[in-house]
């Protein structure tokens, strides 16, 4: 077995990849032109190109950029497309050399992407005078339509205001602060138009938080002591209501009910 | 019954007297006493519900003494048969079988109080027989019909036990005008007195101390008719009673809400026309007992729960919690239904 190991040992060094390059033609290039170089690397089976060793797109020299490197794996090997760009501002036709790039294979072999040369020429005669009319017009500008952006701004503002209002409502801020319910004030106003003592009954219900009947008056006065000065008149009101609505002889005094509603409203607003 | 009945004006002072006497005998039950007396005035049958040893039986015996007249008493048991109320089968001195009138008949047609102790221990057959006795105040026995014009049925059931008891069917419950809860007295003095005062240890002597027949039973029917005819229920009050009963039947439409209950499923039924009639009768009696000639909302409120609670049937999910839910529902109705309404 020893002989086999010895026979296999130098094998990787022998497996030099075959690099064929399809270089750009060697003349007729100007400032700013892109030169496309296609390289095919035929690889022995099981060997790959170390991707980290591929040339990086970069400024290779002050006059030369490598703009893109595209690699494509095929059955026969690796197809590389290198896109160079020439920035050499030539004063006369000039030969430029693109350097070779080293690459490394997975078995440790180092190979080279071949360089190439080309002739680049000036864009115009060096001695021709420069005149103003040689300036080319600006490209036509394209107007940007601001309407979608403005509509978006408007919508966002509306959403902001709405959510602000919603938050204020939820938190009962500012205009959403609950005003104290004033059932007696409302009842006094309503009774000025329509002298119905049941309106005052409803207001008393609202002030008590539940339906208030004459027998509940002590509880009501205990819960709302500010109305205690009117206790007698409230009792008289309930007695009159009982007589009017449940008794047999009904002739209620609505004027007194209206006056009572006004006085209750006054206490409710803190005026007395 | 042409015995001398008190004059109408005299009745009210007799009622106050009876109430005071009953309160001195049965401590801490002033509300139950008041409600029982109202049922007497409204001629409605009464179901007492309460814990053991709270004085239900004493209370009923005391009321029976205040009313006077013959009274019969039956203890509910599992093996009680309907005929046991009517017939008494026994062997006579000569060893021959004899059938004689049972508890319901032995006092004759003058029977004023039929007292059914622990009614929920009796079987539904017995409850069914009671239906006729309560609704029509009549019985058929010994091939003839017996009529009991003065009859008032008092029944009690204790709420502690569930074993070997039979829940009263809805029809039987509906025939009781009121179900009156009898609870342990809350005042400390009352409870101490009940335990230590020897006066309360001998029930017979205690009840014997009451003056008998303060509210003579043979005049009660006429008094009740006078109360019902004389006490005014205005259209506004009729509307209030209707609104309350309607709210109890359909709490969603009335806008009631009770904690931890889905109002759409809470109430399954109840508040029969008989129930509303009982409510109006008892409310009129309450107004009269307060010395008024018109029913006020507070009269309705005073008697609504005892008249309506036992007639309100809850959905199956809520029936187990009815002790809490029905009072809450009634409270919600009184808190919500406006009076006098537009």
From TrEMBL, chain A:
The keyword Signal applies. Residues 1-15 form the signal peptide. The keyword Signal applies. Keywords: Signal. This is MxaA protein.
UniProtKB/TrEMBL annotation, chain B:
Gene3D superfamilies: Magnesium chelatase subunit I, C-Terminal domain, P-loop containing nucleotide triphosphate hydrolases. Residues 42-186 form the AAA+ ATPase domain. Coiled coil: none annotated. It comes from the Bacteria. It holds the Pfam family AAA_lid_2. InterPro entries: AAA+_ATPase, ATPase_AAA-3, CbbQ/NirQ/NorQ/GpvN, ChlI/MoxR_AAA_lid, ClpA/B, P-loop_NTPase. SMART domains: AAA. One of its GO terms (molecular function) is ATP hydrolysis activity. This is ATPase family associated with various cellular activities (AAA). It comes from Paracoccus haematequi.
